[in-house]
Amino acid sequence: MKREHVKLLVLEIFAIVLLLVFFTPMVIVLINAAKTKIEIDNSAIALPINFLQFFTNVQRVVTEPNVKYFSSFTNSLVITTGSLIVIGIASSMAAWVLVRTKTKYSYLIFLFFLSGLVIPFQVVMLPLVRLLDILDRITGIQFADTYHGVILTYLGFGAPLSIFLFHGFIKSIPIDIEEAATIDGCSKPQLFFRIILPILKPIFVTLLVLNGMWIWNDYLLPSLVIGIGGDKQTLPLAVANLVGSFVKAWDLQLTAVVLAAIPVIILFLFAQKHIIKGMTSGAIK
Amino acid sequence: MKVFCQKVGKWLLKLLLHLGMIIISIPMVFVVHPVYSLVRWVSSTFFKKTLPPISLANKNSLFAPMFNKMTGSTTKAQTNRTFIYFLIPALGAFTIFVIVPFFMGVYFSMTNWDGINNASLTFVGFTNYKNVFADSRFIYSFMRTSLYSILNIVIINVVAFFLALLVTQKLKLKNIYRAGFFMPNLIGGLILGYIWKFIFNNAVPAIFSPGSAVTRTLITNPDTAMAALMVVVTWQYAGYIMMIYIAALQNVPLDLIEASKIDGANGVQRLRHITMPLVAQAFTVSLFLTLVTSFKQFDTVLALTNGGPSTLMPEWLSNWFNLPFAPNVKSLNFIAYNIWDTAYNMNKLGQGQAKAIVFFLILLVFSIAQVNYSKKREVEL
Description:
heterodimer, A: mainly alpha, B: two-stranded antiparallel sheet, 2 strands
């Protein structure tokens, strides 16, 4: 018993050291975000002279016209939540009818969706920009650099994985529930929104986390659909824009990086349990 | 031959009929049905007269079954309508924004698209594809990507597996460790690159050689840049893969472990013969995920090194292409970066698109091969 205790203690210490090593980069970035440029140039690891410098840096970043932090943050928020809702609802609806309608069509359409899983974004990105342009001209509705353009694009790219996961989950729901509801006089749409959607909650959380992290952090797609410096630029684009216009201004760059990373980290601290559970169960299914 | 022709003819006719059904059903469901439903509702509430649901009187007419299937009030018709209503948003967006550009891309890869002269594209056949395989830089890029992916897959999975083993022990703070190791995964690729650029260019020299002017850091030295990138990516991704292993490790039944302890198996034997076979499925998933993400690595490379420090192409490769001298290449010029660079920095969009299609095929073959191999190993383990 004693040996076991010693072993666990050693492991515990080892884990703590490892965790500290893992956190070092974040700590270095945080302390440097609270320095002036001269301080950083003098030493990148010394503690800052005045921690309040961080707020001065924040103020400079926030008021910087390239960044427009608050509007970028709002854009990121609107695009991410909008896409999450649209992807969640649209793909669960599609997956449900695909599972519950047993025809050749539904199987073929399911396979059609799955083909999207193997298409990397790089293959589609060049024509996509041009397609948005063509859609612009045909419909007269602007798609590039708008919320609905980005959200619909994300729906297109997010649908395959989401439908695949929903499909697997819905198959495990007993059909008796739906039959009972139908006998009680439930119409099809009611059946979906009142009965099925609440049952889908666990897989919904998984997809919120997976898609949310992807969309919030995505750079390539918004850089093409919105464009760096566009009206609707997201946080990663804003940071790239700042870095492009202030090369070597590490004080500003690091502060911008911290400001971009902090919302997700705060969210993570609050919803840790759900996020971790969601991410792992999503990957295994 | 005649039978074959008849079969093909029948099949084509069927296809045509199905296509026709789909084409007819969309306006029926979206226009005819709602309008007629409105009319019925108005007449029944305001004029106290109930109209019958649409159905063609002549049952033998070609369109009768179609009408009854789509606009009637039977459960069957209702199901059909729901099918279409519910499917259209996802299917439409997916078709328009993924499938259509994909086929446009196949066409563009055979044109001289340069991004400037968009109006007139000349069809050039397979010239772009020929150029892709004759492009020594692309072959170099492919080799670097493969090398990087293989090393990266091994490192991330080894690190992640040991982290998972560590945090599934009976440690006091194990939930904090799990969250902590996972945390870097929340930082997106681009931001990650900027963070580590600072660490490598400023913090690392300040720690290891304070006071001296540093000319070459880990990421500006072409020989170490890839190793540095692996550190960055492992830091970010190992926590996520760790979570997958944790979920698998927790499903290993405890009595098996106990039994092997009683039988006198030591830690390594237990790991090799009990734990690893039982988490084989998690290995398949993790290997697949790391393969795909390594192959598609883009944001981080762009932010960290902008494609990597310049270096000379290895001589054996330039000799292979019969080049008079070894050209300059970027040492982290991975395929995803190479495509982007070709398209947007050199304005050869057609060429870039051809590279992208080749990339797609490579990725497809690699991932299918990897999954098949792992599945086989799963059984053997």
